[in-house]
Amino acid sequence: MASGASQQTQALTKPAFTEAQASALVESVFGFKVSKIQPLPSYDDQNFHVHISRTEDAADDPTECVLKISNTETSKNPDLIEVQNGVITFLKAAGFPTASLCHTKEDNLTSLVSIDTGSGTRSHLLRLLTFLPGCPVAQIPISPQLLYEIGRLAAKLDKTLETFHHPKLGILRRDDFIWNLKNVPLLEKYLDALGQNRNREIVEQVIQLFKKEVVTKLSHFRECINHGDLNDYNILVQPSKSASEDAVYQVSGVLDFGDMSYGYYVFEAAITIMYMMIESKNPIQVGGHVLAGFESVVPLTAIERSALFLLVCSRFCQSLVMAAYSCQLHPENREYLMITAKTGWKYLQQMFDMGQKAVEKVWFETARSYEAGSFI
């Protein structure tokens, strides 16, 4: 294992609170009486679905919340959490379906708690957010129209954040953050997690192409703040009323702003396309529908469009490599960590086999059909 990877392992420790400990924290820090608590899946933080017992004098209190316990590395950076909280609140005020943040008994939005591990003390930042209704996109059959709406949502979110101001906003320039799409070359120090096989060969090829064809274009991309993780579990949907018998879904929640950073509009488009491909039986078709929705708000330039194929491949590589690496650290969380890998390697190979021109033809022709009214 590379030294950089070892350093990250030592620095980042996922929380391991029991349900009883988490329940006690909700009551002691936020002042809510817990009636039920259950763990939620998570990558490197720890989340709990919390049911609150309402009292007569607290009728306005939420009945369901999510307790989010940050990993040790994130917990050392309260300014980053502060900016994330500001973004969540800003977007909710702008009409986006984001959660509301609950205040602690001391009227703060976060609380730092320490836990004795027996071999030392670890500190974790706590937040309590209202629970958003709906089910993850991953759990429903996703239609072209919903893909279009998700693409549109991604672009509107980034566009809206152009007017977000915060004195500590510069902290989102996370130059060494492994999940920022411009940092694909940093994957090289995690490749040993893949072993020696065809998958590794593809990733190495993508990294070299990224250095040659994307890095040289970065100065031509339009910069913005990216959510950076609009995956099929971070977008919630609910059925909406429709005159037809077919189920029509609308977005009811946007979750997890932990990977937010400065990036580019085309990054958000690529990330969204990649994650929407994961659950699709026709993955290559997905990109055109998402792109059409995205470009209804932020049309991509020719140079941004030319990078889209490789950026989608690059995000596949980020997700697949880091999942394999994280499984070595947290084998108990393997089922959640390997969600992308179930179809990801196959779809990445499929994109490579088709080639950039063929995939772009599908995407761009599908997107063009929306302009002609075929899908609307």
Automatic annotation (TrEMBL):
It catalyses: (5R)-5-hydroxy-L-lysine + GTP = (5R)-5-phosphooxy-L-lysine + GDP + H(+). The keyword Cytoplasm applies. Residues 37-283 form the Aminoglycoside phosphotransferase domain. Pfam families: APH. Transmembrane segments: none annotated. Its EC number is 2.7.1.81. The keyword Cytoplasm applies. Keywords: Cytoplasm, Kinase, Transferase. It is found in: Cytoplasm. One of its GO terms (cellular component) is cytoplasm. GO terms for molecular function: hydroxylysine kinase activity. It is an enzyme of class 2 (transferase). Catalyzes the GTP-dependent phosphorylation of 5-hydroxy-L-lysine. Belongs to the aminoglycoside phosphotransferase family. PANTHER family: AMINOGLYCOSIDE PHOSPHOTRANSFERASE DOMAIN-CONTAINING PROTEIN-RELATED (PTHR21064), HYDROXYLYSINE KINASE (PTHR21064:SF1). This is Hydroxylysine kinase. The lineage of its organism: Eukaryota, Metazoa, Chordata, Craniata, Vertebrata.
